[in-house]
Specification:
Helix content: 10-25%
Radius of gyration: 40 Å
Distance between the termini: 48 Å
Number of strands: 22
Structural class: alpha+beta
Length: about 350
């Protein structure tokens, strides 16, 4: 056998052995990973459009029904507590009271006679009780009809500005139907509407301030007053703030546009934003695969989804900022599996063409 044939046989055997060995090695899958970033929570300042509202708003209504004969105030008027707002036609209530007063006089006279007779032991205890109860009943009826007549005059329960006049003279209104709305209170409040995502992080916002054009852009400190727990038809939550500090109350009125600023606190290190495709279900629990660059393996970890965004990301609890998660193909992996990371294209070599 010649020397060349001998070398050729050795090369062929080595090549065959290498092929058999490579065929026996398990294939290491390549995975795309993404780094967990702050859930919209980098320290900084956020802003919300808002408007000024009355710190107290009262809808004033009659306690009786009937036609209006006079509206004594108009929108924008300042009213004092007890000032006349509107009058109702009192004719029927005056007639009702007159009839009740006559009935009262008759029953009172009868009751006095029966009581005098009972004291002289000339009538029964039953007659005495009937007379006494009848007098009590007509007394309450008389008081009620006097109140109804007085209620035909509507007065302001608080001092403030008439925000809206809801009815005019000549209209017939029912008891409890709002006649005017009064913006009361010494100052104004600021109201904003926030999305569900901002609603979930309101506890991380601090140092609230607002800028109002009427005050030449100067900012006023705000104090949270109340937060609505139910979203409106636009899926927004209402948040109210009280304006603190000194300001010209004559210039700032309800209905003005304003911008509310808030400082965002440091992000929770256990809450992060990751691609939504990284989250999968395992035995009824939400999980992700955490990629270890040192060991080139993935480890399954349970997480708590918090909120999803329209950009394809999801906020979860259980992943620390800076950790890497498998962003695609998670259903084909197993816990502890060896993988290799697909390198991210550089800004100057998009597509890896160089």
């Amino acid at each position: 056998m010649s020397y060349r044939i001998y070398l050729s046989m050795i090369s062929l055997l080595l090549l065959t052995a290498c092929r058999d060995k490579s065929a026996r090695l398990p294939e290491v899958p390549s995975v795309y990973v993404a780094e967990a970033v702050g859930a919209g929570g980098e320290s900084g300042v956020v802003s919300f459009p808002g408007r000024t509202v009355a710190s107290e708003e009262v809808n004033v209504s009659f306690r009786v029904s009937g036609p209006l004969v006079r509206m004594a105030v108009k929108e924008g008027d300042y009213v004092r507590k007890g000032q006349l707002i509107a009058e109702m036609d009192s004719r029927d209530y005056r007639l009702q009271l007159a009839a009740t007063e006559a009935e009262y006089s008759r029953i009172e006279a009868d009751a006095k006679r029966v009581i005098a007779m009972y004291r002289e032991n000339t009538t029964t205890a039953q007659s005495y009780d009937q007379a006494r109860y009848a007098l009590q009943q007509i007394t309450q009826k008389l008081e009620n009809h006097r109140n109804q007549l007085a209620d035909t005059r509507l007065t302001a329960p608080v001092a403030g500005y008439v925000k809206e006049r809801l009815h005019e003279a000549g209209e017939t209104v029912s008891a409890g139907m709002p006649i005017v709305s009064i913006a009361a209170g010494d100052g104004v409040e600021v109201e904003i509407n926030v999305s569900a995502r901002d609603y979930c992080r309101m506890d991380r916002l601090a140092d609230f301030r607002c800028a109002i054009d009427a005050l030449n852009g100067s900012q006023l400190s705000l104090r949270p007053v109340r937060t609505g727990r139910v979203a409106n038809a636009n899926q927004l939550y209402s948040v109210r703030y009280a304006v603190e500090g000194e300001y010209d109350r004559r210039k700032v009125t309800p209905g003005m546009s304003t911008i509310v600023y808030a400082r965002v606190g440091a992000a929770d290190s256990a809450v992060a934003s990751i691609p939504s495709a990284a989250v999968f279900s395992h035995e009824g629990k939400s999980c992700v695969y955490i990629f270890s660059a040192a060991r080139h393996e993935v480890r399954r970890r349970e997480v708590q989804p918090l909120s999803a965004s329209s950009d394809g990301s999801i906020t979860v609890r259980g992943v620390s900022l800076g950790e890497k998660v498998v962003a695609a193909g998670v259903r084909h992996l197993e816990d502890g599996q060896q993988v290799k990371e697909v390198p991210q294209p550089s800004a100057t070599n998009v597509g890896g063409m160089m």
